[in-house]
Amino acid sequence: METKKQRLALRRWIGKEEERSYLEVPFAVDGPVERIDIAYRYERGGAEKTVVDIGLRSPERIVGWSGGAREAFFVGTEKATPGYLAGPIAEGEWAVLLGAYKIPEGGAEVIVEVELARPHGRWMKGDLHMHSVHSDGGYTIEQAKDSCKARGLEFMALTDHNTSSQNFAALAPDEQLLLVPGVEMTSYYGHANVLGRPDALRDFRVTTSGQADGVLGEARERGGFVSLNHPFCPSCPWELGFDVPYDAIEVWNGPWRALNERALAWWQAQLSQGRRVIALGGSDTHREDRFVKHGRPTASVWTESDTVQGVLAGIRQGRVVLQFNPDETCMALASGEYGIGDTIPRHAIGEQGAVPLTIDVCGARGDRVALWSDRGIEALWDIALPASAEAGEWETEAAQAGGWSVQREIAAILAFDASEDKEGCVPAIPAGAAAESGVAPRMAETENGRVRLHFQGSADRLFYRLEARRVVEGLDQSVVTCLTNPVYIGRAEDTGA
Ligand SMILES: [Zn+2]
């Protein structure tokens, strides 16, 4: 495996005679680099105070100067420390700039550490649905960013209703977050997120399927990725049909509730008919709330680079896992080199038609993991509660709010849902439903909260996907804690991967 990071330790002796001059400590950037981290130190003490300032230049220009204010900083393709410019990292000779402001008689040694990070594949966590003061949300953009950062997220989409002003207001690079441009087309007949281009949606006024065709089609032509939001929401469902142009379905909106249960069942039916629809989720957070929070659910997306386009490419490939919270149950599903969102090509499947599957689960605490295909549930595992189960964020929060357990938190969400969902069309799936599949659950012990499971799949299935649920004891109900997009089995018409 190619090393992701290259570290350089550089030294520069500064003589008294160099005081009040600018010096360069050069280093080379060879090949693709997505981020440069720099730290420096020198002896500051003594009667004769030493002050060495710092900055950075690329092969083309000065990219930033922090004087004596910071001991470390970074520049990345789309993120940077304040005072530095984010941007593509050019190959060639770079230099750390040192300002020899105050140097003692005996001189001073400066140690500079440079770390070059190569682009590499990784999962990044974010929230693809939220609102700010640019529509009916309570958060300013800065407050929404701070809340997402506090939740440990790495990207966010401000999907204000029928406007793009939030995207233009949030253009400046951040240190931690990637801002995915977004807008929620909000009509009286349904809502849809358009992600990826700041101004992809030109008109939201849709009252017929024909108009939705035109408006969403144009948004896609302008580079937008279209997700039909909360399609089975009792108060604002999608009523314009599913023949309109779209790329994904928001199967998980906010806390796990009946409307999500309905969307999940619809999605499963589509997949079972051979359609390939990407499942997304987003918190739809508008303001501070007991249950609705940034990153609930979290969308974990596989990206090959720390960029918005990388995240969008991962979403377009269906490399998306949804989690109840940023630090809750996470799962991965793979068959050899093919993972979530991929299609296993026919040529990679042996004559016996076996599809060996590897399942990785982390952070599960008493969850029941189900492996689904177009035939329904294929296997079930009960993940044992680790003996030293550390309380997760939602448990801690719940405890602070009055000593609630996970189960009572779930019960509260379900009660909240029942009060909101006046139509009550479909209740949450009873915990006992899995038993009806005729599949007996197996116990799986975790090691440090992690467990690897194996299953011998079959090429006569259309897909495999994972779903983890936590049961509410005494309520005979469960909530989804993690949901993966499928790994698809190649069909005759699929060529290559
Ligand atoms: Zn909406």
Automatic annotation (TrEMBL):
The record's listing under CDD domains reads: PHP_HisPPase
Q: Which SMART domains match?
A: POLIIIAc
UniProt GO molecular function? 5'-3' DNA exonuclease activity; 5'-3' RNA exonuclease activity
Q: Which domain of life is it from?
A: Bacteria
Write the signal peptide boundaries. none
Q: Where is the Polymerase/histidinol phosphatase N-terminal domain?
A: 126-189
Which protein, by its recorded name, is this?
A: Phosphoesterase
Entry-linked NCBIfam families = CehA_McbA_metalo
